[in-house]
Amino acid sequence: MIRRIALAAQLTLAAALALAAMQLHAATYTLESDYTQGVFRWNHLGFSSPAAQFAQGTGSLEFDSANPTQASVMVTIPIASINTGVPALDEDFRSTDFFDIAKFPTATFTSTKVEKGAMADQLKVTGDLTLHGITKPVTLDATVVKIGTNPRSNLPTVGFDATTILKRSDFGLGKYVPQVGDEIQMRIIVQAVDAKAYADYLKARKAAQDAKDAGKK
């Protein structure tokens, strides 16, 4: 009986993977938080250009490779994840002098328009960035890195790189300007997986694991 349950779970998982592999079309995608991150860089007194990273972004993407300008994206970024590699600077960034994460723990970006870029694989994504309690329009220059099937999960996956330049003073983060540069150079990395296929994949994988655990009893 246990073997039959395990076999059924394995067949369900295989069917989910096969279905996922075929779903490379217009779909809702879930951002994979482990592969959604960004790096920003600023000028420090004219002597150096330090960088910091934020990670574990979450959100959703509507995307159709045949009609990329119909895409839309919503991303939430946990500000507490910002890491400069310098603990004292990280604490400074988290304080009320800068991001004030106790009051503003997240930043969000919601697209409002997507246009074709200069190259076939490029897009201009305009949207509203809410940071430090202030919302401003921002345009990202995005490159479609890859559209295909993840070879490890067999799930439909898309990847993007995007860049933009912000003025931190626009978001109430202008301390030490102009000695410390106002312009912030940003690069954002996004990987997203077909939401329905991913949900089916997780459900089937859990069923297979539960059956396996039951077989050990």
What is the spatial order of strands in the main beta sheet?
A: 1-4-5-6-7-8-9-10
Overall pLDDT: 89
Largest pleated sheet = 8 strands, antiparallel, barrel
Uncertain parts: 1-24
Structural class by helix and strand composition = alpha+beta
Oligomeric grouping of the chains: single chain
So how many helices? Answer: 3
Element-by-element helix/strand order? HEEEEEHEEEEEH
* Coarse morphology: globular
Distance between the termini: 13 Å
Strand content of the residues, in percent?
35-45%
Radius of gyration: 21 Å
Percent helix, as a range, is: 10-25%
Total number of β-strand segments?
Answer: 10
Descriptive overview:
The protein has helices at 2-22, 87-94, 195-215, and strands spanning 27-31, 37-41, 51-54, 58-63, 72-78, 106-116, 122-131, 134-149, 156-167, 183-194. With 217 residues, it is α+β, with helices and mostly antiparallel strands. It has an eight-stranded antiparallel beta barrel with strand order 1-4-5-6-7-8-9-10. The relative contact order is 0.22. The model is unreliable at 1-24 (pLDDT under 50).
Task: Summarize the structure in short.
The chain is 23% helix and 41% strand. The chain has 217 residues and is of the alpha+beta class. Strand 6 (106-116) and strand 7 (122-131) form a beta hairpin.
Summary keywords:
single chain, 217 residues, alpha+beta, eight-stranded antiparallel β-barrel, 3 helices, globular, disordered N terminus
Topology:
Elements: H1 2-22, E1 27-31, E2 37-41, E3 51-54, E4 58-63, E5 72-78, H2 87-94, E6 106-116, E7 122-131, E8 134-149, E9 156-167, E10 183-194, H3 195-215
Antiparallel strand pairs: 1-4, 1-10, 2-3, 2-10, 4-5, 5-6, 6-7, 7-8, 8-9, 9-10
Helix pairs in contact: 1-3
